[in-house]
Amino acid sequence: MASGNSAIRGSRVGAGPMGEQDRGFHADRVAVSYWDAQGNETVRYFAASLPDEEIPETIDSPSTGLPAGRDKENPPSVSKLEPYKTHLAYVKERRSDEEAAALLEEALTQLRARRGQTPKE
């Protein structure tokens, strides 16, 4: 354990009565409420001098991770995207061997045309 400092345990060094005001912790703020699809409210604070255009319309809700908007009656909907695809989902997306061969041949033909080469047979 280090010793030798004269600070009282638990106090912050340099935090006098005017310190927080000088750092802007008591600046004028505006509270903006955001609601997610589950009805959770999140309040964010912005500087009062900030124009309305710079305050974001949507944020990610910290409690659920869902998008949250400023309109309480019409919050953003939950995204329908699948966050994680299973192996079976990838297998279902695979093309047949004939389609894959045709796509490969088309890509090779375009590449050779750009390079000015003719296909070797």
Provide a quick synopsis of the model.
Helix content is 25%, strand content 17%. It is built from 3 helices and 4 strands.
Task: Please give a structural write-up.
Forms a complex with the RNAP catalytic core and with free principal sigma factors. Belongs to the RNA polymerase-binding protein RbpA family. InterPro entries: RbpA_sf (IPR038638), RNApol-bd_RbpA (IPR025182). Residues 1-21, 54-82 are annotated as: Disordered. This is RNA polymerase-binding protein RbpA. Strand 3 and strand 4 form a beta hairpin. The protein has 3 helices and 4 strands. The chain is 25% helix and 17% strand. By secondary structure, the chain is α+β, with helices and mostly antiparallel strands. It has a 4-stranded antiparallel sheet, with no helix packed on it. The longest helix is centred in the last third of the chain and has 19 residues, at 97-115.
Gyration radius, rounded: 29 Å
The tally of helices reads: 3
Percent helix, as a range, is 10-25%
Overall pLDDT = 77
Order the strands across the largest sheet as they lie in space: 2-1-4-3
**First-to-last CA distance:** 79 Å
- The arrangement of helices and strands along the chain is HEEEEHH
Query: Could you give a short account of the major beta sheet?
Result: 4 strands, antiparallel
Number of E strands: 4
Shape: elongated
This entry's quaternary arrangement is single chain
Overall SS class: alpha+beta
Low-confidence stretches at least 5 residues in length (pLDDT < 50)?
none
Tell me the strand percentage band: 15-25%
